[in-house]
């Protein structure tokens, strides 16, 4: 299974709560450009996502929207609404162990490609847990990391900065 982990794009701080923070224009543009790059990866490698897990926080939702718009702009076509799951566990302080258990279930069910759109520190922790603390990623806003994971151990295949 390949797990694509993305941190949300750059967000402003002008919101009543952390969960309501919105992307800046720079953050929207970076997520859009990452979508174009991800689309090229999907097209050249014949990838279709089986599941997308996204945080309910506004900035993560906006990141996913801009990402999919970027993917569609390059010609990648997939019905994302049918495979997208908003999950409270994908928030900044979510449980990496619970997420790993869910991904193990998805892996057993035959999922090959899963995209996670989330936050620090969770995205960093996920890379650590999936690679047995052997690899890490500098998760600047809108960074995407791809991990190949066999259900027990994983390896970081690539990371893409916006």
TrEMBL record:
Keywords: Hydrolase. It comes from Haemophilus parahaemolyticus HK385. Its EC number is 3.1.3.-. InterPro entries: His_Pase_superF_clade-1, His_PPase_superfam, Mito_Ser/Thr_phosphatase, SixA. It is an enzyme of class 3 (hydrolase). This is Phosphohistidine phosphatase SixA. GO terms for molecular function: hydrolase activity. The keyword Cell inner membrane does not apply.
């Amino acid at each position: 299974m390949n797990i694509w982990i993305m941190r949300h794009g750059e967000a402003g701080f002008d919101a009543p709560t952390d969960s309501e923070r919105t992307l800046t224009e720079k953050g929207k543009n970076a997520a859009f450009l990452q979508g174009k790059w991800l689309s090229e990866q999907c097209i050249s490698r014949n990838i279709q996502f089986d599941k997308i897990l996204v945080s309910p926080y506004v900035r993560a939702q906006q990141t996913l929207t801009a990402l999919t718009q970027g993917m569609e702009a390059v010609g990648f076509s997939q019905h994302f609404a049918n495979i997208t799951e908003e999950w409270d566990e994908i928030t900044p302080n979510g449980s990496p162990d619970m997420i790993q258990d869910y991904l193990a279930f998805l892996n057993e069910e035959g999922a090959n490609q899963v995209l996670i759109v989330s936050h620090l520190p969770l995205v960093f922790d996920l890379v650590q847990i999936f690679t047995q603390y052997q690899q890490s990623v500098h998760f600047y806003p809108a960074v995407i990391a791809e991990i190949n994971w066999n259900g027990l151990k994983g390896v970081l295949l690539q990371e893409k900065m916006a």
